[in-house]
Design goal:
The chain is mostly helical and 55 residues long. The protein contains four helices and no strands. The protein starts with a helix and ends in a 6-residue tail after the last helix.
Length: 55
């Protein structure tokens, strides 16, 4: 199960019924994928593990 459902952030009804009515996921799928890929390219896990919170 998805973490956001276990944390009660969204109900199954909201995710499966309401959101598809509000948001056009299919037409924005590639744009979202590109944004995620850009974010992942910035994230260097080894670099962040060695930093303190204030850095």
């Amino acid at each position: 199960m998805f973490n956001f459902m276990q944390n009660n952030l969204f109900t199954a009804y909201t995710l499966e019924v309401d959101f598809p009515k509000i948001y056009d996921f299919e037409s924005n799928k590639q744009e979202a994928r590109n944004a995620l890929d850009s974010i992942k390219a910035l994230y260097d896990k080894d670099k962040f593990i060695n930093q303190n919170e204030h850095q």
